[in-house]
Design a protein that fits this description.
Outer membrane efflux proteins (OEP), 462 residues
Length: 462
């Protein structure tokens, strides 16, 4: 029963795409492209860039003339009359009902730099939105890599657990036969049974883990069906030095660009506050739309030059200008701090990546020894010169070496993508993946000894 359940779980996990026909098997570039197309967070940043672009166009409109139309119909309690004493004569200058309408136009000539500050601020907001979008894209790329290659890791774990289960089944089968022949003690057989039960449980647990990580991967690419990775874990050779990655921080990192935009906004705020203390000069003109309803005192049209200037505002402008200058200093200091932090983070991610690569190379060299040790222990057990514990320990050591190799490759991949994000180079990940060295799976069938009986391993029972 336990063996059948394990086989079912393995079949559903590995053969699910073929059975259901509804799953997507995607390479990492394909998954990345789908994530960029479908992810709502990225779409929201694109909307923000569009919104800021429209605001920029609106700010540029401050340089153009402003034309307004105003129309009203008025009703008075009495007509307006003018009388001259003592002459008993009055002149009606305005009926009790009349229309008013004006076409007005104005053009700013000088605003103390406030219009230019508004335009430059709108440009900074566009750059800020674009930098925020790139920052979000880089974070989502790292998240996708973590889930995608995490799924590869769990799939590899499932394969290793399946191999370990088959190995323990054969060992338990051999232990039963040797017990029946009186070669080993019952405790050796019981140890083999426990090892087989543990292997089956870990195999089932790995299958459930795979279902969990596949759900996370489907969420990252915004897919309603299960997503299966087609690209393997990988390692890279001949990467740039960590100093090169640190230098990338200064050349277009989205976080640095984001702070540069905020610094520009703060500078334009200073410019706008200083402009508030300067006069505003403008041209204006008007034309009456209902000349028949005008009084003798109202003009039919007028034009001229205007000027406005605030003489005293309770030191508001002075204090606002000082506050804006402080904001500039604050953003400058924050930018210096974050730039230093990012370079330190680059060092951390680079060293983590190198550490994972060294562990990968170590496990690569260990696997052959572990496989040979398992083969020797299995043969010795069959000859009665080794215990079941020796065989189980050898099998577990071999499985740990296989899993350690996969885990080191996954740690390398994750640290690599985190390094790209820390240095602001996530958009270049495809350039690196084109020269990646894939981590291939071992030929598991060649690692399992031949079945010592015609019927092969069977369910171990009392």
């Amino acid at each position: 029963m336990m063996r059948s359940k394990a086989i079912c779980l393995l079949g559903l996990a590995l053969l699910g795409p073929c059975i259901t026909g509804y799953a997507e098997r995607l390479t990492f570039p394909q998954a990345l492209e789908k994530m960029k197309e479908r992810n709502e967070a990225l779409t929201a940043t694109q909307d923000d860039v569009e919104m800021r672009g429209l605001e920029q166009a609106a700010a540029r409109g401050l340089r153009y003339p402003r034309v307004e139309l105003e129309a009203r119909h008025l009703m008075l309690n009495d007509p307006i009359r003018i009388s001259v004493d003592p002459v008993p004569v009055s002149l009606t200058v305005q009926d009790d009902q009349f229309n008013q309408g004006q076409l007005k136009a104005s053009l700013p000539l000088y605003t103390g730099g406030r219009i230019e500050a508004a335009v430059r601020a709108s440009e900074a907001r566009v750059n800020e939105a674009q930098a925020e979008g790139r920052k979000t894209e880089e974070a989502l790329t790292t998240e996708l890599a973590e889930r995608y290659f995490g799924c590869c890791l769990v799939e590899s774990n499932l394969e290793v657990q399946a191999f370990k289960t088959r190995t323990m089944e054969e060992h338990a089968y051999q232990a039963r036969r040797l017990l029946e022949e009186g070669i080993i003690a019952r405790v050796e057989y019981l140890n083999a049974k426990v090892a087989l039960a543990n292997a089956r449980q870990e195999h089932q647990s790995a299958a459930r883990d795979l279902a969990i990580v596949r759900e996370g991967l489907a969420n990252s690419v915004v897919s309603e069906e299960e997503v299966y990775p087609a690209s393997p874990l990988f390692v890279l050779n001949d990467l740039e030095t960590r100093e090169d990655f640190q230098a990338y921080v200064d050349t277009g990192h989205p976080v640095i660009d984001l702070l540069a935009s905020k610094e520009s906004l703060a500078k334009q705020a200073v410019r706008a506050e200083k402009g508030a203390n300067r006069p505003t000069v403008y041209l204006f003109g008007m034309h009456e739309l209902f000349p028949n309803d005008l009084t003798m005192l109202d003009p039919e049209w007028a034009m001229g030059l205007g000027m406005e200037c605030t003489l005293f505002d309770g030191f508001q402008s002075k204090n606002k200008t000082a506050a804006a200058r402080v904001q500039v200093r604050k953003v400058t200091h924050l930018r210096q701090k974050i730039e230093r932090d990012l370079k330190s983070l680059v060092v951390k991610r680079y060293e983590e990546m190198q550490k994972a690569r060294e562990q990968y190379d170590t496990f690569e060299a260990t696997i052959e020894l572990a496989a040979e040790n398992m083969r020797v222990r299995t043969c010795a057990f069959e000859e009665g010169f080794a215990s079941s514990i020796d065989v189980v320990d050898a099998a577990l050591s071999h499985a740990r070496a296989l899993l350690g190799r996969y885990k080191a490759a996954y740690d390398f991949d994750l640290a690599f993508f985190q390094l790209l994000e820390a240095s602001g180079q996530s958009t270049r990940c495809m350039d690196y993946l084109d020269r990646a060295v894939p981590v291939t799976a071992p030929a598991f069938e060649t690692l399992v000894s031949e079945t010592p009986a015609e019927d092969g391993p069977t369910e171990v029972t009392e």
